[in-house]
Amino acid sequence: MPAPKRGKAGGEGQANNNGAAHLFGEIANGTSQAAGRALTFLIAAGVVVLWALSGPIFHYSDTWQLVINTGTTIVTFLMVFLIQNSQNRDSAAIQVKLDELIRVSTAHNSFVGIEHLSDDELGEIRTKCERRAQAEKAGQESIERTGKKAKLAAERVIG
Asked: Which residues contact 122 (CB under 8 A, 6 or more apart)?
């Protein structure tokens, strides 16, 4: 059996990267779960209220303002990465589910993996799908009109 291929760092860098990615994923998942809870919102609102109430004590100084500005900037900066990580995981999971549904259904398997196409290519596919849907709708309406005409004709013959 051939030896496994190793990257530039002898395979160790990849293992460390996977461990770091896994750790980040766990932290991001836990933090995003906690950030979405009502208690977390109440705690954050409480911090803002305490900060506002402490204004007169610190004479609304520049340092007093800097505390809330720095704190909110740091939290916002870190939350951007956590939210993006959560969205990436959710998007990937949804894509896998959609791909599987397409694979096992009568839908076109050629749609599996189209998320990797360029915006122009996706736009072209979207336009074709919309035209196909319009044509199917027009065909269905034509069938319904024909059915109504046939029913009326049958009623005239019978009645």
From this structure: 114
